[in-house]
Design brief:
The complex is a heterodimer of chains A (220) and B (503). Chain A is mainly α and 220 residues long. Chain A has one domain. Chain A is 67% helix and 0% strand. Chain A has 8 helices and no strands. In chain A, helix 1 packs across helix 5, helix 2 runs parallel beside helix 5 and helix 6 packs parallel to helix 8. Chain B has 2 domains: 225 residues, no CATH class; 204 residues, no CATH class. About 1% of the residues of chain B have low confidence. At the A-B interface, helix 2, helix 3 and helix 7 of A face helix 3, helix 5 and helix 10 of B.
């Protein structure tokens, strides 16, 4: 197995969607970076908003992680999808961690919300992105499952603050008495998204939604 | 050949199948149908409809001011606009994703014409939003308490934002053919235009570069004093949308000329809207704040006179109802006293500045603000009662003795559910203890003892209290009376502490 991973590491590294990840990374750095560069001192709630937006941008980038233009060619290889997907995530994870640290450092320390809790939120967003991408891979033959996954993540992120009931807080401002409860919820979300992602790792034994191939028309 | 046939032929010549124009329209219709069936757009439309219903069915907003109500239609369509950006972008990229771009190259429609069709496909969505905007504004305008004038340019902002964002989505797909670009732009736009992280703020200047500039006014202004460059802003948005569409199209000479024209319109609108408040408006604001009597129309209703800015003239009937209610409970000369109710506002510091009005010193003059409904009614009632008891607003703000009991009882007793109104008119919404009582100008103060006496009076049957108040009117309104004495005169046995003047 170790040999397989060593052999796969370089080709998988090369096929990662670097442009997409790079674009998301750049935008994510600019979101807290621009106010810092312009010398503005954003208030605490703005800082939290910027950090959440950066986390969402990271998630949007990761939603494209499983895009594989060569999917028709890689599907029949003997190494399972689980290994290939896990390898992709493992290759990107250290970079994402370094990137997130940079984002946190870009925010002025005086206004920074609790680092661990915000990182938990970012982790949940990334896990959700990976779970959505995994679901998209599992339920379609599309070599680019990132687009529907990113759309779903974006819609969830923009609509959830409006639709969630008040007694299930998630997007709370810093200093809110419900902050700890909300972060319990974030932890549950992370666990649920992680579980879904793990469940989508393997190739399905039977397809639930098989896309019918068009039958050839009989002529005459 | 009969006339109908000739007409049909003319129509056929207009949009004959095979001409590029008919093909563009057909493609636009097809894309529009697909756009309206996309899940993000449907979600946004459902959200917008829910917002419309929730926003409009608010029982306390029975007295809308239409020059503010037009502006309130602008925020809701932003979500639809973001969905339009995302979905229009994905629609343009579809042919690239499905690898059909090279098949389209051999068709009659050029790339520019296909782009035009994609841009046109956002129009039905913008029309849907326009229906929502008109419905929202009409709902406000037909309320019996509505006053003022809406501005068509302000109403256009919602639909124009949808068009602009859709056009930006199309442009983005032509500039950066990547699926991640639109979601990233949506996040950035959401941060700037919904999340309020737009770097420019304020009432004038660069803040107007944002699509929706909903300067939150603390209280309504007469429409002549608004000073919002709404028409220039609508022109700016339209120019920007057109520029985005033309830039994403072909590079022909005619298109380049059109880009230049659209850009010129955008720059013109953009420059005109970011100027400061016009001098004439600033002067009018100054006049309305300092010498409102020169701008207002006065009406005599009953014994009193009501002076209001012309747009508020219908509202004098509501004010009269309050004055009549308070005076009917008063005794002595106050019962028939001639009051002057004057509307005032502080407009010199702009729409978004909350500045307090100084109390009037003219005897018998009561101030009323530009907002009405909800807590503004008991606040005005308190001001009327305070002027009837203390003589003028300046003196009323200094009342610290037993007269406060008379003032608050007069203010509340004629209203439905006086205890709830007492809670509303107190700053901390309390029903016991010491509290600040709001009025259109300087606030008044109630001690814990006065609160207790007033509540005891409100719990009794009205006629018995009215008789006592009228019988002892002269003593109840004399500046020397203590709260204990007032309670005794009105037959309330309560332990009241010292008054503020005594302490």
């Amino acid at each position: 197995m170790r040999g397989v991973i060593r052999a796969l590491a370089v080709p998988v590294w090369r096929t990662l969607p670097w442009r997409t990840l790079g674009a998301a990374g750049a935008v994510g750095l600019l979101i807290p970076g621009l106010p810092r560069l312009s010398g503005a001192e954003p208030a605490g709630w703005v800082t939290l908003l910027l950090l959440r937006a950066a986390a969402l941008v990271l998630g949007l980038g990761l939603a494209f992680l499983l895009d594989d233009p060569a999917r028709p060619g890689t599907t029949p290889v003997p190494t399972g999808r689980a290994v290939r997907t896990a390898l992709r995530v493992a290759l990107v994870a250290p970079l994402a961690a370094v990137w997130w640290t940079a984002v946190l450092l870009l925010v002025p320390g005086a206004h920074r919300p609790p680092t661990g809790d915000v990182t938990l939120e970012a982790g949940a967003a990334c896990a959700l992105a990976l779970a959505l991408a995994g679901l998209a891979v599992r339920h379609s033959e599309d070599p680019h499952p990132g687009r529907p996954a990113a759309t779903a993540l974006l819609a969830a992120a923009l609509f959830a603050p409006l639709l969630l009931p008040d007694d299930w807080p998630l997007f709370v401002p810093a200093g809110d008495p419900r902050w700890d409860t909300a972060h319990d919820h974030w932890a549950w979300l992370l666990a649920a998204a992680g579980t879904i992602w793990l469940l989508t790792l393997h190739e399905p034994l039977r397809r639930l939604f098989r896309r019918r191939s068009p039958r050839p028309r009989r002529s005459g | 050949m009969t006339a109908p046939v000739r007409e049909k032929e003319a129509q056929a010549a207009l949009a004959a199948p095979g001409t590029p124009r008919a093909a563009v329209l057909a493609l636009a219709l097809f894309e529009a149908r697909r756009l309206l069936r996309r899940l993000p757009v449907l979600l946004a439309l459902v959200g917008y409809t829910t917002w419309l219903v929730w926003h409009n069915v608010q029982p306390w907003d029975e007295f809308p001011v239409l020059q503010d109500a037009d502006r309130a239609t602008q925020g809701g369509p932003l979500f639809v606009a973001l969905a339009a950006l995302l979905c229009a972008n994905q629609a343009v990229l579809r042919s690239r994703r499905r690898d059909t771009e090279r098949h389209f190259e051999v068709l009659a429609l050029s790339r520019g014409q296909r782009t035009a069709a994609h841009a046109l496909s956002v129009v039905p969505l913008a029309l849907l939003v326009a229906v929502g905007v008109v419905a929202q504004f009409t709902w406000e305008a037909v309320k019996p308490g509505a006053i003022g004038h809406g501005s068509p340019a302000e109403l256009l902002v919602g639909p124009l934002t949808v068009l602009l964002f859709g056009a930006l989505g199309v442009l983005l797909a032509r500039l950066v053919p990547s699926a991640v670009a639109a979601p990233l732009l949506v996040v950035v736009f959401f941060l700037m235009f919904v999340g309020a992280a737009f770097p420019f703020a304020g009432e004038t200047g660069t803040a107007w570069l944002a699509p929706v500039v909903g300067t939150a006014s603390k209280y309504p202004f007469p429409s002549g004093l608004l000073g919002r460059p709404a028409a220039w802003h609508a022109l700016y948005l339209a120019g920007l949308a057109l520029t985005a569409v033309l830039l994403s199209g072909s590079r022909g000479r005619r298109v380049q000329a059109a880009v230049a024209a659209a850009l010129a319109v955008t720059v013109l609108g953009g420059a005109a809207q970011t100027r400061d408040v016009p001098e004439a408006t600033a002067a009018a604001r100054q006049r309305a704040s300092l010498t409102p009597e020169k701008e207002q129309t006065c009406l005599r209703r009953g014994t009193s006179e009501y002076c209001a800015f012309p747009e508020w003239a219908p509202r004098t009937a509501d004010w009269e109802r309050v004055v009549r209610g308070v005076q009917s409970l008063a005794g002595g000369p106050a019962q028939g006293q001639r009051l002057l109710v004057r509307q005032r506002l502080e407009a010199r510091y702009g729409l978004d500045v909350d500045s307090a009005l100084p109390p009037a010193t003219t005897p018998g003059q009561v101030t009323v603000g530009t907002a009405w409904g909800g807590n503004r009614v008991p606040e005005f009632s308190t001001a009327v009662a305070a002027v009837l008891v203390a003589g003028d607003e300046k003196a009323a703000a200094g009342v610290c003795d037993g007269r406060m009991v008379t003032v608050m009882w007069l203010s509340l007793a004629w209203q439905d559910d006086p205890e709830a109104q007492l809670r509303h008119v107190r700053l901390d919404d309390s029903l016991s203890g010491e509290a600040i009582v709001l009025s259109p100008t300087d606030p008044l103060t109630m001690t814990a003892g006065q609160t207790e006496v007033v509540r005891a009076l409100l719990e009794r049957p009205l006629p018995s209290v009215v008789g006592r108040v009228k019988a002892h009117w002269a003593e109840l309104t004399s500046p020397k009376i203590t709260t204990a004495r007032a309670a005794e005169l009105l037959g309330v046995h309560a332990k009241v502490g010292p008054d503020r003047c005594e302490a």
